[in-house]
Every structure is written in structure tokens, then in C-alpha cells.
Amino acid sequence: MAKYKSRARRRLKKKRPGAGKRLNQQKETSTPGSHLLASVWLQGILLAVIVLVAYFPAFNAEFIWDDDAITENMLFRMGINGLFKIWTHPTAIPHELHYWPLVYSTFWCEYQIAGLRPFIYHFTNVMLHLLNVLLIWLILRRIQLPGAWLAAAIFGLHPVHVESVVWIIERKDVLSGMFYLLTFLAYLSFERRRNWRMYAVALFLFVCAMLSKSITVSLPIAILLWLYWKRDSLSKRDLLPLLPFFAIAVIIASIDVWFGWQLKKSQFGFSFIDKLLIAGRAIWFYAGKLLIPTNLMAIYPRWHIDSRVWWQYIYPMGVAGVIILLWLIRKRIGKGPLVTVLFFTITLGPILGFIDFSFMEFSFVADRFQYLASIGLIVLFSALVAKGAGYLKDSERWLVYA
């Protein structure tokens, strides 16, 4: 009897190659309580519902503070000629110190439809954020990370993202985030089948991301981190397709920085050591707000930076220490924690203060600055929760999931 059973198993494996591997992948990518959300459609609908319910009050909000870049923008009243000038004469946009024409093109379209009714602008921001939540969920499922749904849900509801979503002028965060995530998704398709049409699509989407907000400059490095996590080592085959992405990032980011400096010389006189102290403290600040999102505000008080004070060096040394430790123990715990922490740190790079930017006049940090970077630590947390819940009984996973 045992002999017949073993033969049957062998025949089953021949008929269904890779069935065991697929089963293991399904187990790895499951989220605590996912037996209750077996339908992919149901999971997506639930994500949409919780995000829309959380952000429903935003639909009644008004314009605030520097939304006057919209309300006072005469280019919107000039029809198609105004749209042309958004791309060719960005200095005509009030209070704007960057070259992000794609953002103002969306505002121009909304003005032609509804004038200065704030509802449509808030509606667009919330819908873009919802799309980003769904894209994060799709990407994490595609690369088979555990806790994909949980990570997307946390990203969708986390309080530090309210500033990016509800503040109309911060459309730049959610719009650039959408193009950033679409670029990553297109590159995944290219990498899987070496489809050069998808490669061209990814390049185009990356240009759109950079023209929405240049903080997306780190995307090629994010792709490299994913490839490093996926493989034992990187080869020329991995690196060469990314060279055009790096070229686009450098060119557009340089134009944006040059444009900003022409309009306003942001020089605060910090030495390199001062900037290192600011960056180290900012990284811990952002991680802390992700973990305990209390006392959130639009403008945080500026820290007093003094390179003669010894304890201020603890922050950058702590960041370096965590990364070195995760590198040393990567063979024991896997490369996932190292990759997510590096993603978080590198994505924050453009706004850590190494290059002076105008908002440093008011504060060194802002919640909206970590809209994309937060994905790294959220994914790490969600994966740990999902894996930890895998050791529990089904009846006990309810509590973890809640």
C-alpha cells in the first residue's frame, strides 16, 4: 500500500511541477487572518474602503497656507497658453522654488473643470493616495513579501501621511509617489521577461516621477536594493539597464536644484559635520514618528546644532551602527532587514540637509518628507508581524491581526 502511495505522489509531482514551491510561496505571502480575506478582490476593496473612510473629512477641507500657489496662479486663467508657460516659464508660478511642472499641469486641468472649488483638488489627492496604497500592495504581492496587505493598510492609514494627502499643494508627494511605484512595477515586468517595451514604459514613468518631485531621484538605488535582496550577487546584466535611470535622475535633479538656487539662495552656513548631525537626528526622528505618531505638526521646531556637544554624535553613529550590525548578521537573519533600513535611509537622503533647501529656514524635518521612505520600515514591521503570526494557531492570529 505504501509503495502505491509513493508512486502516486511521484506521478502528481510530474503532472504538477513546482506545485510544492507555489504552495510554500502562498504560505510565505499570507497575512495574519488572510484565511478571512481569501479573495484578492475582497482584500483590494477592503483597502479602498478603510482609506476612503479615514480620509472622508478631507473632502470638506479648504485651501490653506501656501495653497496660494494655486489660488493666486494667473497661469490657470490663461487657458492652453498658461499650460504652456507652466512648462516653459515656471518662475511665473507664485511661491514655487522647484521645477515640478507635472504637478501644476494637474492643477491646471482641475481649474479648467471646476475653478477654485477645493473639493476636486482634495478628491484627486485622496484618490492618488488610494492608488498608491493599492500599488504598494500589488508590488509586495508580486515580489512575494509576507504581510503585503498589512503593509499597504498601514501605509494607507498612517498619520504621518495626512500632510501629504490633505494639503492640496503637497500633491507633489502623492503624484510623484504614484509614478515612482508605477515605475517600479513596470521594471518588475521588464526584469521578469526582459520585455524592452516595459523598460521604455519604466523610463517614461520615471521621468514623470522626477518632474513631479525630485525626491524620487533614489528610485534606481531602490531597484538595486531589490535586486540585491533577490539575488546572491549583482551582475552587469542587473546594472547596465539602470544606467539610463541614473542619468535621468542626475540631470533632472541638477536642473531642479539649479532652478531653486536661482530663485532663492538657500545657504545656512552649516559645516559638513553640522549637516551630518542634522541628518543623523532626522533619520531617528522620522523612524520615531513612524513608530509613535504623536504630536504631529506642520512645522517642527528647529534643533540647535552644535558640533562641540558630544551627545549629538550619538544620532549619526547610531544609524551607522544599525546598518553595520544588520550587514554583519545578514546571513543569520536574512537580507530583508538590511535592505528595508537602507531603503528608508537612502530615500530620505535628498531631504536630510546635506544639500540646503528652503524649508530648512523653518525646520529640518517634515512629515511629508517621508511619504515614500516610510514604505521601508512599514514593510519590515509588517513582514515581522506576518512571520511571527505564522507560528501561532489560527484562533490566535485574530489578536495579532487586530
Task: List its traits.
globular, 20 helices, 402 residues, disordered N terminus, mainly alpha, 0% strand
Descriptive account of the structure:
The radius of gyration is 23 Å and the shape is globular. Mean pLDDT is 87; it is low at 1-5 and 12-34. The protein contains 20 helices and no strands. The protein is mostly helical and 402 residues long. Helix 8 packs across helix 19 and helix 11 (196-210) runs parallel beside helix 14.
Structure, briefly:
With 402 residues, this protein is mostly helical. Helices cover 64% and strands 0% of the residues.
Coarse structural class: mainly alpha
Helical amount: 55-70%
The dominant shape is globular
The amount of beta strand, in percent, is under 5%
H/E topology pattern: HHHHHHHHHHHHHHHHHHHH
Low-confidence stretches: 1-5, 12-34
Number of strands: 0
Distance between the termini: 46 Å
Average per-residue pLDDT, rounded, comes to 87
Largest sheet, in brief, is: none
- What Rg, in angstroms, do the CA atoms define? 23 Å
> Helix tally?
20
List the helices and strands and how they pair.
Blueprint: H1 2-15, H2 19-29, H3 40-55, H4 68-71, H5 80-88, H6 101-114, H7 118-142, H8 148-157, H9 162-166, H10 171-193, H11 196-210, H12 219-230, H13 236-239, H14 243-263, H15 272-291, H16 314-328, H17 330-333, H18 336-348, H19 374-389, H20 397-401
Helix pairs in contact: 3-7, 3-8, 5-6, 7-8, 7-10, 8-19, 10-11, 11-14, 12-18, 15-16, 18-19
